[in-house]
Amino acid sequence: MRRLLALIGIGSVAGLLVGCEGSHGTAAPPQQGMALPVNAELARANQGPDRSVGNLELVAEFNNPMQTGVTVSRSGRIFVNMPRWFDPTPFTVGELKQGQLSAYPDSNVNRYDDSDYANTFVSVQSVVVDPTDRLWVLDTGSIALGPTRPNGPKLIAIDLNTNRIVQKIMFPSDVALPTTYLNDIRFDLRRGQGGIA
């Protein structure tokens, strides 16, 4: 049986289920007097089993800052991000190794530098490992949910074999407005020459 992997943050929860055999999701059973959807039989059929599908393994606990993203590479490397909202955040992307979180890909890229938003992480909201095992980092370019910084909003690809940035997609100011908050990203590498995000 494959295992379930859980990352838990105190005050926030970042969870990830990895390779759960037979897991098709679950839904709460309808309660007495609750209005049922039009297709109630289909809804009941999709509730899933009333049984355990694996064991949770505590991998890490975080007190602060708040984590908003977690992703796992094919080789099992675990990456977590913490936006620079209101808690002190020495780095905004980290890799979890032996229970310790350290800046990834390094502390220089993670340092807050108000003179070089284009080449450093401002405040990362999401990290995703794509099907080719690259780590994509979505930088909001926004500190504490405030206006975006010039050249701050960007999407960055990191090669997990070399731990180096291999691609940077900058979002111009007419795309990422001062009030824009970039939140999440997904990939489909089957379409187009380089895929779509």
Gist?
This protein has 197 residues and is mainly beta. The protein has two helices and eleven strands; from the N terminus they run ββαβββββαββββ.
Oligomeric composition of the shown chains: single chain
Figure out the total of helices.
2
Order of helices and strands: EEHEEEEEHEEEE
What share of residues is helical?
A: under 10%
Gap between N and C termini, in Å? Answer: 33 Å
CA-based gyration radius: 19 Å
Could you report the average pLDDT, rounded to the nearest whole number?
78
- Class by alpha and beta content: mainly beta
Total beta strand runs = 11
Query: What portion of residues belong to β-strands?
Result: 25-35%
Spatial strand arrangement across the major sheet: 4-5-6-7
Main β-sheet description = 4 strands, antiparallel
Low-confidence stretches: 1-27
Characterize the overall form.
globular
Characterize the structure shown.
The protein is mainly beta and 197 residues long. Helices cover 5% and strands 30% of the residues. Strands 4-5-6-7 form a 4-stranded antiparallel sheet, with no helix packed on it. A hairpin with a 2-residue loop joins strand 1 and strand 2. The longest helix is centred in the first third of the chain and has 6 residues, at 40-45. The radius of gyration is 19 Å and the shape is globular.
